[in-house]
Amino acid sequence: MNLKSDKLFPRFAAYGFLKNLRFFDPFIILIFREAGLSFLQIGLLYSIRDIATNILEIPTGVFADAFGRRKAMVMAFASYLISFIIFYLFAIFPLYALAMILFAFGEAFRSGTHKALILEHLKMTEREHLKVAYYGRTRSFSQLGSALNALIAAALVFYTGEYRIMFLAATIPYTLDLLNMLSYPKALDGDLQHIPFKNIWSQSKKTLGSFSGIFTNRLALRSILNSSLYIALFKSTKDYLQPILESFALSLALFTVFPPFTGGTKGGLVVNDTQRSAIIIGLVYFVIYLFTSYASRSAAGFSERFPSLGRAINLSFLFGATMLLVAGFATSANLTIISIIVFLIFYALASLRRPMNVAYISDQIDSRIMASGLSVEAQFSTILTAIFAPLLGLLADHFGVGVALAVLGAGVLVMYVFVKVSEKEGIN
Question: Terminus of the chain with fewer CB atoms < 10 Å: N or C?
């Protein structure tokens, strides 16, 4: 696919790249644990974030479709920046909860909205048939950002000796992304008209009327539920790789002493446990996101290997849930290397699925309400994550991380029968 003549692609790619420079992400559970939180409290924070996001998803999706997707994205990044500052300044549960709510504002304004901007661009340029490949390419830059993010985060922890500095550092790329959003052309807002304040409610009702049709479309609803359940599974479990990696790092006799940086200095730099963990975690996440970047770029080719896009989505769902089940058993059996490798596959599969899910959903929903439709997907995923996260934390506190992962993986496999999408050709 030739993208040299596409002037907007670099901006779409820059959005994903900068958005994923959340330097705290590879260490978020370790940050919370360092602050004295239990796994259950961490799960509750995730639930607070997701319930708040859930409440805000529909109105923010309607706002984006009715009054401007670019404005919604600007509001998203402003909310993110405020939450990062609170996370950096304070380390207590109530203020963490407040920061999570502000983070939820960002998630609600952002989720689905940028994908709708991309899909609007493809519609305007008559390239809608390329949406899997195009979105896969933009997402690959997001994953490259995550790979670089892991190395920068590890370096920050190594040289500062603390985790929370990463919240402050994350304000830099997010400010740049805010400026990037302001450069998007107005045409990407879609078919919008200036409306007086007194007519805002009538415009909202018009958008909501189209939006409600999603729930009467069986194919659209199934496609949204399939994607949402897998997203929730991934979001609620992916960070549990961090304590597994920390345990692995501390069991190794590597990186205990670094050589001196100058020839005239005797001895070497003694590395503490936090720094050792940062090195291992940073390197592993770097490799993971290189794989996920490649997976995103390969989404179109992967889906074309199957008789239909629906078949690719269904089989990848089953394989992903099975991988989590295996990771749980491996963790419980102290087969840490196997657990890490399986998590790598789990991450790559989530990245591979995302472009396919977006394409499948977009085929079932009117382009005029795409942001709202994808917000429904995000809403369902946040409801499920809000349930999964504290349940996973409670199980981890009482039975260990391995058992918690295995139980959730098995549970989602059982749910597959309710979210299986149609595999017939011609409906996609």
Answer: N
* Residue in this structure with the two tokens 């591979």, named with its chain if needed: 352
CB atoms within 10 A of CB 337: 9
How far apart CA 162 and CA 274 sit, in angstroms, is 8
Q: What are the domain boundaries of the chain?
A: 9-192+199-419
* Residue partners of 45: CB distance under 8 A and separation at least 6: 32, 37, 93, 96, 97, 100
3-class SS of residue 350: helix
Cβ contacts of residue 298 below 8 Å, gap of 6+? Answer: 136, 352
**Mind listing the pLDDT tens digit for each residue in 162-218?**
888 899 999 999 999 999 988 888 877 766 544 455 555 555 565 555 556 666 677
Task: Provide mean pLDDT across the span 141-151.
Answer: 85
Instruction: Tell me the C-alpha to C-alpha distance, in Å, between residue 419 and each of 347, 406, 413.
Output: 21, 20, 10
Read off the pLDDT of residues 84-130 as tens digits, 9 standing for 90 and up.
Answer: 999 999 889 999 999 999 999 898 888 777 777 888 888 888 777 77
Looking at domain 9-192+199-419, what is its CATH homologous superfamily?
MFS general substrate transporter like domains (1.20.1250.20)
Distance CA(87)–CA(197), nearest Å, equals 36
Distances in Å between the Cα of 325 and the Cα atoms of 119, 143, 401 are 35, 24, 12
Structure pTM?
0.75
- Of 126, 106, 118, 143, the residue nearest 10 (C-alpha): 118
Structure tokens at 146: 């995550």
